[in-house]
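Lab notebook page, bench 4
Experiment: in silico fold of construct C2
Operator: M.H.
Input chain length: 145 residues
Purpose: comparison with the prior construct
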Amino acid sequence: MRALLQRVTEASVTVEGRVVGRVGPGLLILVCAMPDDNEARAEALAEKIAKLRIFRDTAGKMNLALAQAGNAALVVSQFTLAADTSRGNRPGFSGAAPPALGEALYARFADHLASLGIAVERGVFGAEMKVALINDGPVTIWLEN
């Protein structure tokens, strides 16, 4: 699975004019399942993200994990993270998992992250979404497992 993490002071996702997910301080996590991914990989990625020490402690150092900082996660499906730009000018997305698998692994990822004690908000899989965020730092991290 692939994920793009953005540390945020706030983030929201809107579908058809309605806010469906919103967090204050925490992470916006854009996540993409690949064809050979499975539940174990989704859970491993969630655990890795939960343990990343990328939030400031009282000394201002990046030393706290998401739950330690008392922050939340907004998880948004993003199949375009599988973009192949190796040929021509139009990205190809055949490297993303088929929709049924992608949706199942997106849900498993978000559910597992929540089971680790993190408040999780979500986008809507497959929907046309508008994502708003204020990047904090900025801190942006690419993960792939």
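Observations: The longest strand covers residues 129-144. The chain is about 20% helix and 40% strand.
Next step: discuss at group meeting.
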